[in-house]
Amino acid sequence: MNKNIQLNQAGQLQHLLTIEGLPPSILYQILDTAKSYEHVAHQEIKKVPVLQGKSVFNLFFEPSTRTRTTFEIAAKRLSADVINLNVSSSSQSKGETLLDTVDNLSAMQADMFVVRHADSGAAHLIANHVAPNIHVINAGDGRHAHPTQALLDMYTIRHFKGKFNHLKVAIVGDVLHSRVARSQIHALTTLGVSEVRIIGPKTLIPRNVERMGVHVFHDMVQGLKGVDVVIMLRLQNERMNGALLPSRDEYFKFYGLTKDKLMHAKPDAIVMHPGPMNRGVEIDSEVADGAQSVILSQVTFGIAVRMAVMSILVGNHGGGGA
Amino acid sequence: MKIQITRGKIVDPQAQTVVAADVYIAAGKIVSIDKAPQGFVPNRIIDAHEKFIIPGLVDLSARLREPGFEYLATLESEMLAASAGGVTSLVCPPDTDPPLDEPGLVEMLKHRAKGKNQTNVYPLGALTMQLKGERLTEMGELKEAGCIGFSQANQLIADKQVLLRAMDYAATFGFSVWLQPQDPYLSKGGVAHDGEVANRLGLPVIPSCAESIAVHTIIELMRETGARVHLCRISTAKAVELIQRAKEEGLPITADISINSLHLTEHDISYFDSNCHLIPPLRSIEDKEALRKGLKEGVIDVLVSDHSPVDEDVKQLPFQASEVGATGLELLLPLTLKWSQEDNIPLAQALSRVTSRPADILGIHAGKIAVGEQADICIFDPEREWWVTPNMLKSQGKNTPFVNRPLLGKVSHTIIGGFLIYEDARA
How many angstroms away from the CA of B164 is the closest CA of chain A? Predict the structure, then answer.
């Protein structure tokens, strides 16, 4: 478990576990492939036969509706057989270990696992364990990574803004606990945006996060000045009152995105959110539903991006395991 | 049994000398060095050509997992691992199941260990009942049962009033208190150093201040109580600095670090290598450098294996869910040698950190090779390269961050109390 195992010996994508360590060429390959799948949604028959005869197991150790659904739709549009497993409610409670569960499902001839787990590193553990013909997609592991979310965010940014290199992007909120933010930071720096800013109170920003190539702001107005993209993060309910934050009202006052605060960004700035949103906590409804919001586009693009990732993984079968 | 060790080089860590001479052993003692005593007829001659003869290692922290965790390791497996690692005396922490908080448990452990005529086992008694940090144990009784000191294993007592009283009570009788400085609140839920690797991997953190604040607290309580304290498993540069100042002040403080902290950093976690899930966590490169310097200069007194065998199954989990610990008894000597080589530290000086110095802290007759001393001796081949693989390890614990890495230096013979307890078949 000592190397980045997501590339095969030919340097192609074998698993998608994290954005970290992926070259820009692979990120662009995914974004370009996603573009080519955008039309599928508008066909009369919304299917292409790319994954025909393949079994995709959605292995969710943590509850999720939206992510799981979009993966399911993506796999079905590629003509795969999709099996959904909410493991939190079955084997794990009977004491079966994570890798035992994976072994059992592998024995059912799985071709691909889409994994969500509450612990950082779970997808790596599984990818290290499975046979070389099985691909693993990380659909979110603990605080570590959520690479398909970051990719659909990049797709969205590219769709609305074109090139990445002149963009200033602000990520606002609970970066400390956010796998989405970590993946976004890696994706944005890999694609070469001109600046990534992190905005939030010190309790929600990891120490030394600057080493990831970002600038930290605690004053939201300062941080939003002149940015092209504002990405809001979800604040989990259990973190709203306690030792991290005093109250949701105070959080909203300083770090909630309102129309007034958004005025400090560029006039054509877009507003994004990975969902599900807490209206009135991290984002005001007026902004969430406003003209600059592209939040629903993110959801739509998410399907094409996940189709792209799945088809690339299956297409990269020849390279052999790393 | 009479043994003659011939053609080897004797390293004396205390005198810091290396001399070529034969060693003669009879009735459990070293009876002569260099010249054979009159009429000495050995039952066994050990050829130590191109090998070093050193005092048996004294390891200040090795978990034997008995009682209670026999599925992880047994006295048999771990005593064999100790002798294969050249360790002839070891201290075991009290975090067994049940913890070593009653004299009967300690007597049983001592008895079981002694019955095997192997490595000398020095148990640490629990400082508080069930290590809960609430009620004091019967330290006097535990001492009589054979405890060498008192410890909270790897947790500091949350309630500082209890800690103060425990230290006061221990100081009453002059017992030493062994504390692993880690603030239980600041380290709550954490699994990795608060640095760039944990940031990248999204792992919950244990900040450096969890250690330095605990060290501050302990030092202040030492001033208050006069207790003698051994700090276990230091991991930060800040703690080294605090210990140095406490020593300059004349406080009766000693400290150790683990082989893992001596050689590894947070970067060794790489992509979630659960073998690197350790307490204290592997810290920054700067911390590692400060620990090495501290150990060289003697601010840190001792290097320990921190041997904690765990089951393979509990390491095959996501990093933060995996069990803490690594095997270490058989790695202590080669990793001491590696440090000696890398930092240009004379062999005898480096070895003093795993022989004479820990023996001094325990106040036991060990850690030196001299006429009249107990014959606890380790012979090793400094040029023998070997790979750390599960097959090579006698311990039941096979997990270590050093797995699949080459190491230089391997024990060929271990003599304990004048008996040849271990002999490497391939030596």
Answer: 28
